[in-house]
Structure to design on (117 residues):
């Protein structure tokens, strides 16, 4: 008997089936968990233009995606206001133009911000 803790599914396998079933099941579980995490992230990720929007979203427990200047002082100020910090930046950076969402300096990249628990 193999029980999946991610879906709760249970299934009986013969001894000879186990050898091929287990690697396949592990792949299935990984894919299931990845998709679940991806969906959750999509739901929780909100693009913001300014500090007011960011404050609301962080308070609601979301992650924010914003144009940022990248300055340590700017992040420190943001952290004091919201309790959130920079997490990472997307690998594929879209073209950035305009101002930092927090301090209005020139934005250099897009970044994710959120509270880490
Ligand atoms: Zn800034």
């Amino acid at each position: 008997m193999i029980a999946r803790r991610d879906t709760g599914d249970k299934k009986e396998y013969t001894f000879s089936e186990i050898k091929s079933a287990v690697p396949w099941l592990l792949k299935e579980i990984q894919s299931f968990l990845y998709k679940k995490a991806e969906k959750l992230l999509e739901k929780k990720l909100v693009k913001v233009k300014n500090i007011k929007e960011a404050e609301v979203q962080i308070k609601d427990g979301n992650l924010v995606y914003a144009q940022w200047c990248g300055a340590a002082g700017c992040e420190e100020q943001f952290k004091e206001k919201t309790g959130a910090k920079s997490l990472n930046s997307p690998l594929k950076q879209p073209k950035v133009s305009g101002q930092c969402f927090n301090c209005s300096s020139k934005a250099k990249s897009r970044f994710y911000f959120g509270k880490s628990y």
Remarks:
- Residues 68-69, 71, 74, 100, 102-103, 105 surround zinc ion (CB under 6 Å).
- The chain has a mean pLDDT of 94.
- Strands lie at 2-3, 10-11, 45-47, 63-68, 85-88, 109-114.
- Helices lie at 15-44, 51-59, 72-82.
